Amino acid sequence: MTLMKSWVDSANSPDTDFPLNNLPYGVFDDGQGARMGVAIGDFVLDLGKVDHGLDAGLLAQPSWNAVMEAGAGVWAALRDRLTQLLGDETHRDAVAPHLIPLDRVRLLMPFRVTEYTDFYAAKNHAFNVGTMFRGPENALTPNWLSVPIGYNGRASSIVVSGTPVQRPWGQVKRADEDLPRFDRSARFDLELEMGAIVGKPSQGMVSVAEADEMIFGYVLLNDWSARDIQAWEYQPLGPFQSKATATTISPWIVTRAALEPFRKSTPQRERPLLPYLHEPGPMLYDIALEVTLAPEGKDETVISRTNYDQMYYSAAQQLCHHTSSGCPMRVGDLLGSGTISGTDEGSRGSLLELSWGGKTPVTLDSGEQRSFLEDGDTLTLRGHAQGDGYRVGFGACSGKLLPAADLPGWAQG
């Protein structure tokens, strides 16, 4: 597919994340309250002010949950209508007054997160981490090539891009210590992920094909992780407080419809999957991803570049497996892909991997080095699918790390 022309000039630039081909959904506030919008070029369109052809109540709320609940027919009708309004010159006079420059708005959470599940579904990341802790011969756990591994996280900790993140306290145990102590996390990290948003509920098990159709859209996702807290707590039940500080998502929901031209297949299987996980067609996407790190008051450095096509299990497979026990899925459920890492050193999706557990620190353009994050660091995730003369982008997913809060007296013992 080539660029779809819009009468909004900035939407026709090959460098914009938001051409007419994209039409991502968000929630914004320009000082007059939270409203639903769609990004187009350098603007956001106030959807409550245009003739969108849907029940007015669906687009008069500060989240996209009601639209998701309305079903796939409404999703398609809205996308078709917006393509008309922003692509056909005859609508310019009616629509243009309701375009607001993006640099004049504050972007908010685009949907209410009902539940959050994070997976561990990229093989390169799992192999890297396993190699560090168990050696290359036992890097992957016995179940990894058969099942999408995941854990249930905290929906309450999901925040939108631009929200500061505070370094957590927790139980940590150093290798030379017999017992743990309560301390600030010294090995705080990022995780480069994609998030899939469930737009259709389920009761009972669904197929991979049905799961794919349940996905409303995707966001970038940074699952901040306290590695030292995780190392002490994760046995036997896995991550808990080490992953509960915050998870940052990008503010624009890029719909599954916008990503259709960029589908790619999951890799050849090293072990046959059980039949319920078989895919009817390509279920991944060709989405170029990067991570930058900017120390306090300094320019950012790109520390990683990879691609969403490096996943071993697709979001549809993850969602199918999630329902396999009969677990009901709800509108607004968020599935984190797990850290996305490529095959070379510069494509690793976490500092744990980039610095190989702190043994080989990353050197920034400023000359500073990082094994893990320092207070004042700003992490930014970006991603886009590249078309012919256009791209479908996600905008930025950013967060600044603040120092840990002072420990209250009663917790000091």
Molecular structure report:
By secondary structure, this protein is of the alpha+beta class. 17% of the residues lie in helices and 27% in strands. It has helices at 65-70, 72-87, 92-95, 123-134, 208-214, 227-233, 256-259, 315-323, 351-354; strands at 25-29, 34-40, 43-46, 99-101, 106-108, 116-119, 150-152, 158-160, 165-166, 169-172, 181-184, 188-189, 192-198, 215-223, 225-226, 247-249, 254-255, 263-264, 284-285, 288-294, 301-307, 334-336, 362-363, 369-370, 378-386, 391-402. The strands form seven sheets. Strands 6, 7, 8, 13, 14, 16, 17 and 22 form an eight-stranded mixed sheet that branches. A hairpin with a 4-residue loop joins strand 25 and strand 26 (391-402). The radius of gyration is 21 Å and the shape is globular.
| Beta fraction | 25-35%
Second rung of CATH, namely the architecture of the largest domain: Alpha-Beta Complex
The structural domain count equals 2
Q: Kindly provide the name of the CATH class of the largest domain.
A: Alpha Beta
Helicity level, as a percent range?
10-25%
Give the total of beta strands: 26
SS field, number of helical segments = 9
User: How is the CATH topology of the largest domain named?
Assistant: Fumarylacetoacetate hydrolase, domain 2
Straight-line N-to-C gap:
64 Å
Sheet/helix structural class: alpha+beta
| Coarse morphology | globular
Name of the CATH homologous superfamily of the largest domain: Fumarylacetoacetase-like, C-terminal domain
Low-pLDDT residue intervals, each spanning 5 or more residues: none
**What is the radius of gyration computed over CA atoms, rounded to a whole number of angstroms?**
21 Å
Outline the biggest β-sheet.
Answer: 8 strands, mixed
Mean of residue pLDDT values: 97
